[in-house]
Design a protein that fits this description.
Length: about 240
């Protein structure tokens, strides 16, 4: 495939994503289906992803497209298959943790292929010994690090905590603080507010060997309040 062909593909994906953002699911479906039928993994994933975007696509249809993409090692398709199924508490198909060994393997494979959300989830499951994964703090820290390096805010917060507490490896207060600061700079995830609140507490009380610094405590306390306002507005 030459550069022009690649550019056309990118433009088609972008056009489909724009259509989805506008709620024009039929237009997105029309754009993606021929390419998906030709075997393009990204188009197959995007077509299956219409299920999550709010279209009327049935889960069985979406799952077929996601399976086709997953068979080509599409990381996000693997993540979706590992994390979606019938949720009894809701009475419908929804996001939920893996329920069996096969789904655990799908999640692990998604993480290995670079899905930041799969890496974050593995970090959480290993850290807590949840969703069929034995508790392993070393593995938890390992996967949180991979997700954090890709900019996943919740992973950055949790990695920062593990480094401060010496969970899953040596204590590293400097690195832990750096990850908390990084997490606090986002307004896309409530974990940013938690990071700012923790930083304010650390500086305000002199935790983890830090000297009390009222000015920094005030700065992060104010940041936490601003983030809370943003997230509250998003929910309203």
């Amino acid at each position: 495939m030459n550069e022009n062909d690649n550019q056309r593909l990118v433009e088609l994906y972008e056009s489909a994503n724009v259509a989805v953002s506008e709620g024009a699911f039929q237009r997105a479906h029309k754009l993606l289906k021929p390419l998906a039928e030709s075997g393009d993994a990204e188009a197959q994933f995007l077509l299956g992803n219409l299920f999550y975007a709010g279209s009327d696509m049935a889960w069985d249809v979406a799952r077929q497209w996601l399976n086709s993409a997953a068979e080509q090692n599409h990381a996000e398709a693997l993540y979706c298959l590992a994390s979606t199924g019938f949720e009894p508490s809701l009475g419908e198909v929804a996001w939920r943790p893996p329920v069996d060994k096969a789904e655990c393997r799908l999640l692990q494979r998604a993480a290995e292929l670079g899905s930041a959300q799969a890496q974050r989830d593995l970090g959480a499951y290993f850290s807590m010994g949840d969703a069929g994964f034995a508790e392993d703090q070393v593995q938890g820290r390992h996967w949180y690090l991979h997700a954090a390096e890709q900019g996943h805010i919740d992973a950055q917060y949790n990695l920062g905590m593990m480094l401060l507490e010496g969970e899953g490896g040596a204590e590293d207060v400097s690195a832990g603080m750096a990850w908390l600061v990084e997490a606090s700079q986002s307004d896309d995830d409530p974990a940013a507010q938690e990071a700012a609140e923790l930083l304010s507490e650390i500086y305000g009380e002199g935790l983890y060997g830090h000297q009390i610094d009222r000015q920094k405590a005030k700065i992060y306390s104010q940041l936490a309040r601003e983030l809370k306002r943003v997230f509250d507005e998003d929910l309203s």
